[in-house]
Every structure is written in C-alpha cells, then in structure tokens.
Amino acid sequence: MSALVVLALTGFSTGRHGHGHSHSGGGGGCSSSSQDHDSSSSVGKTGSGHYHDYDDDYYGDDTGGSTSGSGGGTYDTPTPTPSLKAAKAKLVSCATEKAQYATVEVTNPNAVEGDFTVRVEFDDKQGTAVADNTTTVTVPADGTARAEVKLVDSYGHPDDGLIFEVHHCKANPVAEPAG
Q: If we measure between CA atoms, which residue out of 98, 85, 116, 95 comes closest to residue 170?
C-alpha cells in the first residue's frame, strides 16, 4: 500500500488503467491530468487521468500493464532527511598577509554529519566591512571542523592590496545548514 502512496506523491503511476486487464500501451511514468500517453484510444480511461483501484489485491491479479518493483513484495518508503539545526561558528584567526583567509571553527550540534555555510566579514579600523565571504564546511556528527574563508574582493577574486585594509574579522556565530 505504501508503494501507491509513494507513487501518488511523486506523480508516477503504476501504468494500470483498469482492473485485471490492460489498455493498449499504458506503461508507467509521469502522469498528469493534461497528458495522454496512449493517444490511440481513450476507452476505459477516466477523464481526470487518475487510476481507480476498487479491489484490495495489492497487484495480485493484474495481467496487463506494468507494475513498479517485482512480484508485488513489500516496499520501503524513503526516510526523510532530518532537518539540521544550525551550527555554532567561532573565529580562530583573521586573515594575514601570508595567509589571506580567516579560520573559523564550526561545531555541529546534530547527531548526523552536515554541511554548513560559514560567513566572515573582514573589517577596517573603523569597523566598516571591506569584504565578506562564505564557504561551506562538512562537520562530523556532534563534532567540530575548521573552515578557511578566503579574503576576496566583491567579484570573488583574490586582491593582494585588500589585506592592507583589513584590521579585524568577524565570523557570523551561526553557521546555517548548506543547501
């Protein structure tokens, strides 16, 4: 039964358009009320494009069309990916002339590995941002990882002169899940 739910939710059909017999063609695939994959005949089809199964045989006596899977066995419904909580980010070091990137330590509070987006603002002496950049880092479950956020100009290109304007860096303390 869960296979029909999965098929219904994904927009696929089993290819069955009636009970116990097949109409010409009629294979499975994407279905829509505005599509007719079998234009040779519309006999026996419902106008809405929906399949109505009035029996409870779980594919047992269907002799035509195509079915999903093999032999009418059980089907596992996919487990949804758990939504990740945001990670914590802490600035370790700011960009220097030799290492033109900021290093940020990211702590993952989740019981699963995750990808997180880290943002660093590079500021001048007055606290005005001269650049900011992001990077994505993979952090193990309940663990930490370090990310290097490059100092780049507003076009994303390295700029050796930009480092002389940077006085300090600020890491966003929240690293959101990437994607």
A: 95
Burial status of residue 134 (CB atoms within 10 A of its CB: 0-12, 13-18, 19 or more): middle
Predicted confidence (pLDDT) per residue in 118-131, tens digit? 999 999 999 999 99
The single-letter DSSP state of residue 33 is T
- Whole-model pTM? 0.56
Separation between Cα atoms, residue 112 and residue 114, nearest integer Å:
6
Spatial distance between the Cα atoms of 115 and 137, rounded to a whole number of angstroms: 6
Contact 132, 121 (CB under 8 A): yes
Q: Please tell me what DSSP assigns to residue 162.
A: G
Cα–Cα dist 74/53, whole Å: 18
| Length of the chain in terms of residues written | 179
